[in-house]
From TrEMBL:
SUPFAM superfamilies: PTS system IIB component-like. The keyword Phosphoprotein applies. Gene3D superfamilies: 3.40.50.2300. Coiled coil: none annotated. GO terms for molecular function: protein-N(PI)-phosphohistidine-sugar phosphotransferase activity. Keywords: Phosphoprotein, Phosphotransferase system, Sugar transport, Transferase, Transport. The modification Phosphocysteine is found at residue 7. The keyword Transport applies. Residues 1-133 form the PTS EIIB type-3 domain. It comes from Candidatus Enterococcus clewellii. GO terms for biological process: phosphoenolpyruvate-dependent sugar phosphotransferase system. This is PTS EIIB type-3 domain-containing protein.
Length: 311
């Protein structure tokens, strides 16, 4: 069970988690428990869940934002909010409402005690009940990649207001496809509240906005990538990232792009769009080992009776 304890900045919740783990170890409990920072637990989820029964994460409650709601909402079973941050409970519940995670206040009698054993005893019965409740709401979790959304495409290297892209997406709209275009940012990708219904959401971005650290979050939403034929070397290198996550990348035809003929190109992409839609319906989350497996522990070597050491 993954438990996130959030306070103002993470210091108080860290001390709370430390006392809980110490109490569990001292009681010779059959439960295997561990605690670490929320960032570490998110990155090393598979390692933790295979070796522990209770995994406590500490951190600031304001870490929970729309762009990382997927991580928090699908990894953690419960988010406890410290008494001093109770005024933020409703806003965090709203961010995580579409995910099978319970968000609630932790009682002062549990969080405020300096006695780890007392806090653990108070918490144990509640965790059992919350685990049962969480299993009941878990059917809210989307089974496939676009189970909770429409198609989302990322366009790289093209201008949103260019005549080529304007004519390209006008053809799709003439085919009764409701196309929504906007600028890309990771925050905008997740913190999204459209006023109108749509079929395809198109986000325009550039290579500089793609970082390896944030790429797993991007990959959970983006169904396909459209690229201009004249891309910079940086973007060419990052194409491999999309391959790692099985996100199809399509390059606009050089001739059509050069003469700004978006109409011809749009018709060529009709079949491609159908394939993207079909694939996303049946694609589950992908976690390449190269990206999400923690690096091996470095072994320090010594020589000359410890006078020289290296890794």
């Amino acid at each position: 069970m993954f438990i996130y304890v959030g306070c103002a900045g993470g210091m108080t919740s860290s001390m709370f988690c430390q006392r809980i783990i110490k109490a569990i170890d001292s009681a010779n409990s059959p439960l295997r428990a561990v605690f670490d920072s929320v960032g570490t637990i998110i990155r090393r989820k598979k390692e933790f869940e295979g070796n522990y029964d209770l995994i406590f994460a500490y951190g600031g409650i304001n870490l929970i934002q729309a762009y990382n709601a997927y991580d928090i909402g699908t990894i953690f079973d419960v988010v406890f909010i410290a008494p001093q941050m109770r005024h933020m409970t409703k806003s965090k519940q709203e961010i995580l409402k579409d995910y099978p995670v319970i968000v609630k206040d932790i009682e002062m009698k549990t969080f405020g005690t300096m006695d780890g054993a007392t806090a653990y005893n108070n918490l144990l019965d509640e965790l059992i009940g919350l685990d049962y409740e969480r299993s009941y709401v878990s059917n809210k979790h989307p089974e496939t990649k676009n189970g909770d959304k429409n198609i989302e495409l990322l366009v790289l290297g093209a201008d949103r207001n260019d005549s080529f892209t304007d004519s390209f997406f006008s053809v799709w709209q003439d085919l009764d496809l409701r196309v929504l275009t906007e600028s890309y940012s990771l925050e905008a990708l997740y913190d999204f509240h459209p006023e109108e219904t749509f079929d395809i959401r198109v986000l325009f971005g550039n290579a500089a906005q793609l970082s390896k650290e944030e790429f797993p979050k991007l990959s959970r939403r983006i169904d396909g990538v459209l690229m201009t034929p004249f891309t910079n070397p940086s973007l060419e290198k990052k194409k491999q990232w999309f391959d790692d996550y099985n996100i199809p990348v399509f390059v606009f035809d050089t001739r059509h792009f050069a003469i700004k003929n978006g109409e011809l190109e749009a018709h060529r992409f009709q079949r491609i769009l159908e394939g993207i839609s079909y694939d996303s319906e049946y694609t589950r989350e992908i976690s390449p080992a190269e990206w999400e497996t923690p690096p091996p522990v470095k072994v320090r070597k010594t020589a000359l009776f410890g006078l020289i050491s290296w890794e």
